[in-house]
Amino acid sequence: MKIYVVPLLAAISFVAAVGWTYSVRPRHEPTLPAAPPPESTSDKTIAAVGLVEPESEHIELSCAVSGMVTSLYVKAGDRVSKGQRLFAVDDRDLIADRGVKQAALGAARAKVRKLEEAPRPEEVSPAEAKVAEAEALLADARVQMNLIEGIEDPRAVKREDVERRRLNFQAAAARLEQAKRDLALLTAGTWAPDLEIARAELAQAAAAVRQDEINLERLTVTAPVDGTILQNNVRPGQFAQCGAVAEPLMVVGGGTSVHVRADIDENDAWRVTPGAAAVAHVRGNSAITYPLAFVRLEPYVVPKKSLTGNATERVDTRVLQVIYRITSSAPKVFDGQQMDVYINRARERRP
User: Fold this and answer.
1) Which is nearest to 50 in space by CA: 264, 344, 334?
2) Is the C or the N end of the chain the one with fewer CB within 10 Å?
3) Are residues 149 and 189 in the same domain?
4) What DSSP state is assigned to residue 271?
5) Residue 324 burial (CB < 10 Å; 0-12/13-18/19+)?
6) How far apart are CA 165 and CA 140, in angstroms?
7) Burial, 213: exposed, middle or buried (Cβ in 10 Å; 0-12, 13-18, 19+)?
8) Which residues of the chain have a pLDDT value below 70?
9) Residue 122 is part of which domain span?
């Protein structure tokens, strides 16, 4: 019996092992994509990767002056008009400096007005009175001189007294002439060069105030075009760095239409016909398609940036960029979204 039992147990164990192995083997069931991939309708089309962008392209905003953000007036998704305030940087130091310069401007303006309105009526009357006084003193000196000169006997008066009265008469005449000249100088008004200097100082003070006002305007970033805030990386209290930065402070898109920037492989660039129509498929649902109208072709071939993630994709490829406009009135796409583009009427390869 042992001769038959052992082979039988071995056979049973073998069958059981084979059955268990078969039952636990991995099953590779085919998986279907959520949506069928887009297919070209003709062998004469060119496939390209499209990127949705606004009509004005993406406008990456920065600030003219670095500083702490004190005010934020918009958020992502808001519609803005050209010149509308977006955010502002701390301006307290410039406001204080502008106050000092405005005071200097007021002083310069008052100085010019004073020189332009000269002479004051209150200043003319005293000057005229001095002229009248000098005339009276001159008349008195003339009378005294005539009296002493009219004495016939030279022994009756000293020669010294005669000369003194003559000198008094000459001094009175000189004082009258001085009073008349002072009156003429006063009534002539301000000297033209003095007025020009005062006006130049006024213009300099006004320019200093205007400089601060311009610097204050530069601290408030405004919308360059009518459009939409696509991205906002500004927060109140953060330090905004001006110039070229890795992450823009804000991204604005303007225009009324939606564009698609199609990247065409450099190997197919020679087949592109300017003005050719195209069609774009939405990724994830190839049934949604949008006809495209040619806008322009950018003749400079650039390195490829939009990657599909395919393992066999080359990253050192250069691409020709063609801009198309979605002709639908209200396409359900978002800025930065990738689309599959097929361009019609391509040239045929010839030997």
Assistant:
1) 264
2) C
3) yes
4) G
5) buried
6) 10
7) middle
8) 1-4, 6, 30-37, 39-43, 155, 306-316, 345-351
9) 100-214
